[in-house]
Automatic annotation (TrEMBL):
Signal peptide per UniProt: 1-24
Annotated keywords: Signal
Protein name: Lipocalin-like domain-containing protein
Length: 156
């Protein structure tokens, strides 16, 4: 009887461990997505493009996509999207007051779509997305980098 009770206790412990581990990863993904979305929204620099851009949309989704859409005053729309599993690195060009964040992918993994352009609608591929940022410190860039890497590993 003691062997049965010990076996039952061990199997319950193993099942509870598996149960808790199974539900820990999505929280990490959602948490990382939330952090990325907040940092990018808080530090987005509309003044770098205010003369030509009417509005923008910048979203990091729970299923691992980065989507960036710009609406120009002329009516033109640019849309950039890539799966974060294709993220290869980032680079920041500028200073703490103002700069541009380059999100690089492993290959031509960024979908670029242009609507209502003078040359017509264009679909193409790119290797990076450029996002204007302001008031960002080195620690903030490290947080961005760590969360991009964490999400890219989780969504593979």
């Amino acid at each position: 009887m003691k062997k049965f009770t010990l076996g039952l206790k061990m199997s319950l412990a193993a099942i509870s461990c598996v149960f808790f581990c199974a539900f820990s990863e999505p929280d990490t993904l959602i948490e990382s997505v939330t952090v990325l979305q907040k940092y990018l929204t808080d530090h987005y620099d509309t003044s770098q493009e205010s003369a030509t851009i009417k509005r923008y949309e910048l979203n990091i989704t729970n299923n691992g996509f980065c989507r960036y859409k710009r609406y120009f005053n002329s009516g033109k729309t640019e849309y950039f999207a890539f799966k974060l599993s294709k993220f290869s690195g980032m680079e920041y060009i500028g200073d703490t007051a103002s700069g541009r964040l380059l999100l690089r992918t492993k290959g031509d993994d960024v979908i670029v779509q242009t609507y209502k352009d003078q040359g017509g609608d264009v679909d193409s591929m790119a290797t990076q997305v450029v996002i204007p940022l302001k008031n960002i410190e080195a620690e903030d860039l490290n947080v961005l980098q760590n969360n991009f890497v964490k999400i890219s590993k989780l969504v593979q």
